[in-house]
Amino acid sequence: MVTYRTAAPHEREAYIDLANYAFRLDFETLMPKAYDKGVDTSALHKVADEEGRLRAQVAVFPETLRVGDSILRAGYLGTVSVHPRARGEGHMKALMNLWLEELQGTCDMVVLYGQRQRYEYFGFTLGGVKLKYSIGEANVRHGLRQVDAAGITFSPLFEIEGGAKFAYSMNTSRLAYVERKMEHLPLIFSSLHQKALGVLDQDKLIGYLVVNEAGNEVSEFAVEQPGDIARTLKAYMDYSSNAPLTMCAPEYELPLNAALGSIAEEIVIENSDMYHILDFASVLQAYLALKCRTIGIIHGEFSAVMDGQPVTARVDAEGVTVERSARPDAVILDRQQAQALLLTQHSRYMAVPAPAGWFPLPLFWYKSDKY
Fold it and tell me: Which of 25, 118, 24 is nearest to 77 (CA)?
């Protein structure tokens, strides 16, 4: 007999062992913010228990997301593990549905990264906006030839006095960010085998980079002054001796995208994650206002009933307003259609009377905030 329930604290080793066995990975080193020794995330795991043996699990890690003046409640879904001998028995489906039912009313959206069709069955849509840059040695040598990078050096961030406080402050200064506890930053930045480097200018901390083990992928680039973006990039290319360098950025980080786009060999717009929106009005209000404030969008109005939820959004000289009501002529969209409209590049091909350029919304998750 199989029961589906929340994991208990004493089962920590059992659910980590299950994840390690299912993925052939070491989750304590891969995801220390969730599985480091001394970290108890048992209450965040739903498990399939077959007479005392864990056969499957799904975890949801709560995250508070601040987008401009809006606060969104998000859950990042991960560690979806099924024992090889229990595959095909419906455990994943039962656990996913259990979580999605429980999160109704307490969460605005659930986020994950996974195979598209696998999670579409559970109401997730691959979308969001991530700009990905490829920068080679020639791009820097010619495109930044007039940039003086003298004095810029790099050092492990948390070996620098005040490094954690600095990184915390940089994160909270962003237009959109997942809240991070300052004391947890060393674990957060080391997740997925990453490392954080402090950027020093004449020994003064001016920024940080989060990079992969090889040093050829920068998943997070943060400097206090936009004028230091090019200097830091040029210095890091020399420091790492890795080319080409891949860098990712959210669409709404205008100074960073302007600097990278001016020299990059390739620029690709990619999806960021998969999303299951539980409160369409809240998500639409937050990200439409962010897009209006940064990228800019035309004035207009859009009214729809999205998966049974009525919404009317307006953009005018006063800004963005979203009401939880719909006009009599509002378009009716099911979940898949609504999320495709709000989150994907495919929205431009949909026969929906939405103002041009409003969608997709610029949802983005930094790698350090994923599970």
Answer: 118
The answer on pLDDT for 142 being more than 80 is yes
Is the separation of the CB atoms in 261 and 147 below 8 Å?
no
The string of DSSP letters for 19-66 reads HHHHHTS-HHHH-HHHHSTT---GGGEEEEEETTEEEEEEEEEEEEEE
Q: Which tokens hold the place of 108?
A: 């605005």
Q: DSSP per residue over 213-257, as a string?
A: TTS-EEEEEEESSGGGHHHHHHHHHHHH--SSEEEEEETT-HHHH
Can you tell me the distance from the alpha carbon of 73 to that of 141, in angstroms, rounded to the nearest whole number? 44
Beta bridge partners of 294: none
Distance separating alpha carbons of residues 275 and 110, to the nearest angstrom = 6
**Whole-angstrom distance, CA of residue 271 vs CA of residue 130:** 6
Tokens of 280: 């369409």
* Residues forming beta bridges with residue 139, ordered by sequence position: none
Please tell me whether residue 344 adopts helix, strand or coil conformation: coil
| Of the candidates 176, 97, 123, 73, the residue with the CA atom closest to the CA atom of residue 306 | 123
User: Which pLDDT score is estimated for 326?
Assistant: 98
SS3 265: coil
Over 80: is that where the pLDDT of 242 sits?
A: no
pTM, 2 dp: 0.95
- The whole-chain average pLDDT of the chain stands at 97
What is 60-119 written as a DSSP string? EEEEEEEETTEEEEEEEEEEEEE-GGGTTSSHHHHHHHHHHHHHTTT-SEEEE---HHHH
* 8-20 residue pLDDT tens: 999 999 999 999 9
- State whether the Cα torsion 35-90-7-22 is positive or negative: negative
